[in-house]
Amino acid sequence: MIGRRRAPCWVLAIALVLQHAETLSTTTLTAPKPASTAVQQLGEFNVAQLQEYEGLRGRFDRDKILGFLAKRPWTVAGRLAYVSRVFLDTKNAWESQESLPEDQRTRGAMLNAAMAGLGPVSVKVGQTLSQRPDLVGEEACEALKSLQTKNRPFSNAAALQSVAVEFKLNSTANVAPNIGGLPAKECLFASFSEEPAAAASLGQVYKARTHDNREVAVKVQRPDALRTVAIDYTCFAVVWKLIERWWSFQRKLKGEGPFDNGDIGDVVDTVADGLFDELDYDLEALNADRFRESLDFLGFVDVPTFLPELSTNRVLTTEWIRGAHLEALSVKDGALMTQLAVEACTASLVLTGYVHADPHEGNLMLREDGKVVFLDFGLMSGVDGYIMESFAQGIRACLAEDYESLARAFQDVGFLTTPLQFRENPKQAYELYDTPGGLDQFANELREAMATTEGGTSRFGALAEVLNGKLSKRWKMFTPPYCLLLIRTFLTLEGIAAQVDPDFNIYEMALPFALRRSLAPSSKEGVETLRKSLLTDDDRIKWDALLALIGDEPSEEVIDDGKPKAEADMSAALTAVVGSSSGAALRKAIRDVDAADLAARLVSRSGRDVRRRAALSVAGAMEKALLPRRRKVSHVEEESVVSLNAQSAKGLRRASSPASRRLRHRQKRWQRRVVAHLIRSHVARQIRSGRRGLFALAKLSYLGVRIMVGGMLQFLWVALLRGMERIMPGFPRRPAAA
């Protein structure tokens, strides 16, 4: 008999691990009462079997889940055995077809089917890998891409019955007239598609129409999603616990002390926490509204409108988006969507602190009005203010190849231990490396590793490879649990962007938002860092820091507004910050600066570059206001392959919203007011300070006249060239290089 057979030792090990988890001995879980609707089957799903798991629904509770499944070791063992068997079969099949011509291989379809069949956790992994050909190869990526929108669906009968149960309908015939033939007044929807429009990891989407003639998307959760996620999480927790105990035993035998696993257990819990949030459609609706509001200032980001009257915890109804995914877009529109999505996510990371953690191709659409629409808000990530500032510092450091600052950013966010721990080779134990030059040594090794890694200063994936594959062998590092979803976000985005432009530099695209965060710190540490980076202890300007902040020496390569790229980024950041509520630290630094010292610097030889930039800005403003715009064909329109960079971004036409236009108008208005107030306060202070102050005012007045004259001369030169272009088409605006 089954009940008398001897359990294998590995099943007993699983039971032992579960029974000895923290606080599990006192954890109890009562199965919920059966639903009032007398349903025994939801299509192919047994309701009684699934119902006992309903007590786990809600916020992720580690002890409750492990305590519940500790009483079901055979369930966990069976799942582990099945996953292991599928993995080995797929691995063997993949390797067996290595020598076959590509047109004869079927292993891609087998890999896709295997990942889809293993359930939501496996599908999430597959969706991320499908954007990373640099990690798994082109063939595997192509095979996994359909997991983004075309997962293995569950039956339509189960979906219709789920809708009927959730809304307490008499039968599935009451879902829509085309389903059961009943009059429209007796049905929930006016129409309901007979097949799903898309199948995701945790549910599938149907197209429907409401009685007031609105097209909507109805997402129905898989009936077994909760059970599968709970069991898969337990499998991960058990496997990790067994590995941890085995490694601890090995280290004890070698006399190396206890095993320090860092926070891998917390990482597993973080992933599970996100998946449990995805099962709560009420929470998803709230997340969508919060995400839309957080990025409303951009003007080109939107989310589907939620219909609460047609939604429950397991059925979510939103407006139907008229748009297209990346695969259906032209090169031009694909570049637009990718650019906007990257900008939105980087703004989320360093400005708003509320990040979409699942931005794969299936969750991004370009709407007919030119806005990028994000879908699926079950998996989100929050970022604290100080962490946002550290990320902004890291982005700027990557672009500047300032590895000392990048090393400090790693330590601030928790990738590096404090104090540092180091070992000469992987066979040795880590030792404290609390010396003044420790971080400098790490920075030097980081510099060497980045220089020898392809895409080291342009790809986020390359940075992850450097940290995990090279430096972690000598330096003790952790991946903070809060970073896990952020890493997923940017690995996924980078994979999408690489399809449009293989040379895409994610740090360059993130720079404008990183500058804004650097100028608008919210933490005490960030405020102090900003002030120290701009002013000395006696409030004199740090000239080298100022020059580094506005970029390299001006060049002839300019963008639409007549400013060099770095200056354009800084100008936009200053405009957005100086008059905003988050710009208090910047305004205080500007107010406290020693104006006399600044005036002396500006009129000296070292101020030449700053004066030239200012004159170019004046000329650009006059050109924009007084001369007709020159018609230009953007790079996106004239090329079949698009380059995603800061300059091409200017050629992309962005949508805007009334809220974003009002915000920009307020920013400019407050910027003028704040600048006027700061000038008045400095003038008053210089007058009160006597002769030195009056001399400083004279210098600044002379400087202003000089910049205005220089700007006017530059404008006249541009106007003359414009006239020559009209008289002599093809006349070069700038002399050819010698």
From TrEMBL:
Matching InterPro entries, A to Z? ABC1_dom, Kinase-like_dom_sf, UbiB_kinase
Task: Work out whether the entry's keyword set contains Signal.
Answer: yes
Q: Which UniProt keywords apply?
A: Membrane, Signal, Transmembrane, Transmembrane helix
| Signal peptide from the UniProt entry | 1-23
Kindly list the residue ranges recorded as spanning the membrane: 700-721
Indicate the family of this protein: Belongs to the protein kinase superfamily. ADCK protein kinase family.
Q: What is this protein called?
A: ABC1 atypical kinase-like domain-containing protein
